[in-house]
Task: structure prediction
Amino acid sequence: MDGVAWHDRVGQRVVVRSRLDDGTLGDVVGELTDVDTHLHVRTRTGVRAVPLDLVVAGKVVPPRPVRQGPPHLVTSITDLEAVASLHWRAAETERTGGWLMRASGGFTHRANSALPLAHVHGDLPARPDAAPVLEAATAWYSARGLPARVQLASVLDGGVPDDHGPSAALLAACRREGWRLLPPGSAVVMTAPTADLRRPPALPAGYRLEVADAPDDAWVAAYRAGAGPLPPAVRPLLVSAPDQAFFSVHEGGTPVGIARGSLGGGWAGLTAVEVTPAHRRRGLARALLARVADWAWRGGARSTFLQVGVDNITARQLYAAAGFALHHRYDYYEAPGPS
Result:
C-alpha cells in the first residue's frame, strides 16, 4: 500500500507490518491518525510512528472484538458508531476531545451532529463531564448557522450488550439542559455476516441490475424521490466513504430500485435502498442487497451494517428475513431554541 492509499485510510483501524532495526518484522495495530513520512498509529499504549519506507504490508481491520461470538455481533456499540461515521463523512469534521463534530450544510442529521466516541479514541475517560461538551457543540454549530445536535446510541432489546460508552452521560445532560428528541431521526442498527447475504433471487423478466463507481443523474433522481430538490451536499456525502458503489435495477432505461454499498473500518455499509412503489414485492430490494453483499465480500468486508428507521417495520422485516440481527439504536437530540 503506497503513501496515497494510506492517506485514504486515515481515521480507520489498521494493522501495519514493518521492518525493524534487527531485520525482523513487527506489527502495529490501531487507528491511523496521520500520514507524512511516517504512519502515525494510535495504539492502546500511545501513538506509534512507523517510517513509511520500512512498511512492507498493511490493511484496514475491523474494531477489536469485545466478546466471543459471531463477528458481526462482537463489535461494541460505540465502536460500530465510529465505523459508521466513516461511511457517511460530513464535508466538515473536527475532533473535540473524544467527540466528532460534523457539518454538511444541514443535509441529514447524521452529517450534521456531534458523535460521542470518547472511549474509542482514548482522549477522555469513558464518562466525562458532559455539560462542557454540550456547550462546545452549541458554539461549534452556531458558528456554522446550524442547530446543535448530538447523535446518541443506546442498547436495544434483542441487541448487543451495553458497552457503557459516553452516550449515557451525554443523554442525561441533554435531558437536564432541555435538549429535545428528534423522533424522525431515530434508527435501529442491524448487522449480518456478509457471506450470508450473497444469495440473490432471480430478477423477474424485463429487469436488469447495474453497478457504477459513482451515482449518475438517474440514480440521484431516484434517491429520496418525491422529497423535492436535493441540496448540493448530497453528491459529496454519497461518495464520502473510503470506497463505495452504486447499484440500480432498471426496467427499460429507468432505474426502479437503487442501493448504495460502502466500505470502511473493515465493515460494509448498506444505505439508500429504495424501490419505486409500483415495483415493490418483486424481490428487487433483496436482489440489490445481495449484489451489494457480493461486492462487499470481494472488497474484504466480512460483516455488514445498515441503519433503518425505528418505525419502518416493513424494511426491518425485510432485513431480518435476509439475515440481519439487531445491534443497537440511536437517536438525535437538538439544543433548545429556534431550529
About this structure: Residues 71-186 form one domain.
